[in-house]
């Protein structure tokens, strides 16, 4: 079976992704996936290992500290990330994904970030003697860890809120199965959030307060969605690319790393603020469910 580029795009590209991936990685990765899937028997796990080796090669270049080596290191890091995106695409395209493959992909990502950080910052410290590079190295590793831990915890808290609300509705003997507005909007982004509540199902909106405070966000979100870009504009991916590609290419590692770190923290605080607003919606929704449950049944 021969795969086409359109099949790769429709079957493996995420509905929304980091803007760096959408604009600077997917156009190349998609075409490489077509050739790799059609002409070779290379497995996703082999590509994952290839991405790791390229990342280690990038670290070796960063350790040399000279600008020409930094440029080569940046290019190798970008190619490593392209391969990192290819393994999942081929796994989804051929249906050959495994639990081990997902684990390898995650662990190798962290290994690549750690080794490249140590090499880049130690190389600059050794060449200049400036201790700020060592502090930057610690900050990069910490922020990379913070981003992924925070993402897992935010998802966990959202699942817990949904689970408690679902349980409360089931205990209230409601005739409706609860549906969450954010899930409906994820399936059909063109839905009007205000019209969702008119449906006959039990709809719970955990982003109502956020949208009421930031009405402009919907317009921005829609524009980004149309371009397949997620609203979290500076995530772990963009942070890595700034530190390991942009900074070395322009030979401005310190200001680029500090700027990227500041933007990453801004977006992380925005996520936490949005989660806090969702917790207020959760508290109100839970109180309404329990209040309705405590109301006496009407007398016939």
From TrEMBL:
<dbReference type="InterPro" id="IPR000462">
    <property type="entry name" value="CDP-OH_P_trans"/>
</dbReference>
<keyword id="KW-0472">Membrane</keyword>
<keyword id="KW-0808">Transferase</keyword>
<protein>
    <recommendedName>
        <fullName>CDP-alcohol phosphatidyltransferase family protein</fullName>
    </recommendedName>
</protein>
<dbReference type="InterPro" id="IPR048254">
    <property type="entry name" value="CDP_ALCOHOL_P_TRANSF_CS"/>
</dbReference>
<dbReference type="Pfam" id="PF01066">
    <property type="entry name" value="CDP-OH_P_transf"/>
</dbReference>
<keyword id="KW-1133">Transmembrane helix</keyword>
<comment type="similarity">
    <text>Belongs to the CDP-alcohol phosphatidyltransferase class-I family.</text>
</comment>
<keyword id="KW-0812">Transmembrane</keyword>
<feature type="transmembrane region" description="Helical">
    <location>
        <begin position="256"/>
        <end position="276"/>
    </location>
</feature>
<dbReference type="InterPro" id="IPR043130">
    <property type="entry name" value="CDP-OH_PTrfase_TM_dom"/>
</dbReference>
